[in-house]
Design goal:
The chain has two helices and four strands. A hairpin with a 5-residue loop joins strand 2 and strand 3. It binds zinc ion.
Length: 83
């Protein structure tokens, strides 16, 4: 599962089967962020099952584990100076 943050409340999730879904945080900010109604996903599973699909779970886990990094904030190796 590969997760890319699109904007503040949207995440692109590429599943292990290669399909891409968009998970959105719909919460108002004053509730439990893991409350399932606050997350939406456009995968088939989330449309007929109540509760969080695995994509929303993956996004929540990534946020909890602080695994979402902007590329700009990744530590860069210092360039080797030739002198
Ligand atoms: Zn999903």
């Amino acid at each position: 599962m590969k997760i890319t943050q699109l904007d503040n409340d949207a995440y692109e999730v590429v599943s292990d089967s290669g399909k891409t879904y968009t998970v959105r945080y719909e919460g108002s900010g004053d509730g439990d962020p893991e409350y399932c109604a606050m997350w939406s996903c456009d995968c088939p599973a989330s449309t007929y099952r109540s509760g969080l699909c695995k994509h929303a779970h993956a996004v929540i886990d990534a946020i909890d584990n602080d695994e979402l990094h902007d590329e700009e904030t990744e530590p860069q190796p210092a360039p080797a100076l030739g002198f």
